[in-house]
Amino acid sequence: MTLTRGARITGAVLCAVLALMVAAWIVRDIRAADGPGPVWDYWSGTGSLGGAPRPTTSATSLVLLVAYVAAAVAALRSASAASALVVTGVVTFALRLPSTWIIADAPAPEELRDRALLTTYVVLAASVALIVAGVAGRRPVPEGEERPAGPGRGAGVAAFLLLGFQAVVFAGWEIRQPFIYPSELYPAWFIGGKPLTISLTEGPPGWVTGVHILIFLVAAVGAVAGAAYARPLGLIGGGFVLASGVLGVTRIIRFEMYERFFDMKFEAQLNMLSFVSSLLIAPIVLLVLALKGGPRTPGGSPGPWGGAGPWGVQPPGYPPAAGPGVPPQAPGHPPAPAPGFGPPPPSSPPPRS
């Protein structure tokens, strides 16, 4: 299925609106902090804001900004526009939903809270509209046009392994944190509220991490199955992995933690290695999923023993392989007899006297 022209234009406009709102909040934070440096330090946890107001965004907003721009381009030009719009809408709704109940009690000026709440409602409405446009605007692909395709077989397996590994890493640290952090942080870690202070337009850390894990798992399963939605979802997931790796490695470099690596406890070493692995894995995920994969045949890719299925097994209804010197037969036609086998041809009649 592909999208109608009206659905493509609608989706592109909605993505542009979402991108503009995210960009406006990021610009607001940069102006309030007198430069991008303090905002980046706050995002990465490597510095203080001094007397500057607390930012309203995080690195999640930056990843979503890139995703909105890419989805707008895909909506106008890509054969997978429907999947891109639906995936972008679902991810946006999942990440921004907690703001509807967090902003009301946030420690911020009332005018700023009102603007943030209004923006959140607009973002949620736009995300739902993206889903509707991607679902209701579908139509059969006309003959001759490019059809939506998921990752190729090799790319799908690679994405499955890498995203699955990141899901395990993220989930492992999330399970570990209740044993490290004070119990007073829960359940605010997942649903917001005191004593946790959260950026005004962002969700609670536990909620955001949970959404990331779901993105990795669903994209990994879809990639190995060759689903069309796996490419846009996996690319967004790769963006979050990249952001995590960049922020973590920034802290490692800023505090020169690498110099004390062998003197640290084993858990601290694993923490550092987790960020480094994210930084290395993310570009691979983005690369393998950015490449278009060809359509997969029902019988699988050619196996080493010939044939269209795994290990040379032919798909149902396909004629058996022809022997040497025998031309291949089309499906639905009886195979030609192999030379040297079968009943002998009828003998010629005797000559008439």
The secondary-structure element order is EHHHHHHEHHHHH
Distance between the termini: 73 Å
Q: Give the percentage of residues in beta strands.
A: under 5%
Which structural class do you get from the secondary structure elements? Answer: mainly alpha
Total DSSP E strands: 2
What shape does the CA trace take? globular
Radius of gyration in whole Å, from Cα? 28 Å
Mean pLDDT: 84
Largest sheet: 2 strands, antiparallel
Count of DSSP H/I helices: 11
Q: Within the largest sheet, what's the order of strands?
A: 1-2
Residue share in helix: 55-70%
Uncertain residue segments: 298-353
Structure notes:
The termini are far apart. This protein has eleven helices and two strands. It has 353 residues and is mainly α. Helices cover 57% and strands 1% of the residues. Helix 7 packs antiparallel against helix 11. It has a two-stranded antiparallel sheet with strand order 1-2.
Comma- or semicolon-separated keywords:
1% strand, 353 residues, mainly alpha, disordered C terminus, two-stranded antiparallel sheet, 2 strands, globular
List the helices and strands and how they pair.
Elements: E1 2-3, H1 5-32, H2 36-44, H3 59-77, H4 81-96, H5 99-102, H6 110-136, E2 138-139, H7 153-176, H8 188-191, H9 205-225, H10 230-254, H11 266-290
Antiparallel strand pairs: 1-2
Helix pairs in contact: 1-3, 1-6, 3-4, 3-10, 4-6, 4-10, 7-9, 7-11, 9-10, 10-11
